[in-house]
Design goal:
By secondary structure, the protein is α+β, with helices and mostly antiparallel strands. Helix content is 30%, strand content 24%. The protein is built from five helices and six strands, in the order H-E-H-H-E-H-E-E-E-E-H. The strands form two sheets. Strands 3, 4, 5 and 6 form a four-stranded antiparallel beta sheet that branches. Strands 1-2 form a two-stranded antiparallel sheet. The radius of gyration is 20 Å and the shape is extended.
């Protein structure tokens, strides 16, 4: 993000999180590398981890990707025609979390369009008593 002091990030997560991260990083003209590691190598040897790890390795092979291979940004997000949206649930470094006062809640959403590199922060006010009546038992 242009107004952030963060220049480098190191993290772990699953393949879906890696692809989503690659899309937003590409939209912001950043760079990223990743590797797919089977579960039993990351979470330790157990019968279940080994079984799941073998399934992950088989999926990699079907996609023509080798485990441990360094994946470049272009391999994970082929172009910048992406739209990324995230709404904060709890407050963090990137987004404010949901707050509530009586029947009014506020939320913050980050919306990034890769093609134009447009970054929008949307602050929303929700009148909870005006939401679908089927939701009232959970939100009021």
């Amino acid at each position: 993000m242009p107004d952030s002091e963060v220049d480098v990030l190191y993290g772990i997560g699953g393949a879906p999180e890696g692809v989503v991260s690659a899309a937003v990083i590409r939209a912001l003209d950043g760079d990223m590398q990743g590797r797919l590691l089977p579960r039993h190598e990351v979470k330790g040897e157990s019968e279940e981890n080994r079984r799941l790890g073998e399934q992950e390795l088989a999926r990699c092979k079907e996609m023509g990707i080798s485990a441990h291979q360094v994946l470049t940004l272009g391999m994970m997000a082929r172009n910048d025609n992406v739209i990324f949206a995230a709404t904060g649930i709890t407050s963090g470094d990137l987004l404010k979390g949901i707050t509530r006062q009586g029947n009014i809640a506020t939320s913050e959403t980050l919306l990034i369009r890769g093609k134009s590199r447009t970054i929008r922060r949307i602050q929303s006010i929700h009148y909870l008593d005006r939401k679908d009546t089927a939701l009232h038992q959970w939100i009021l």
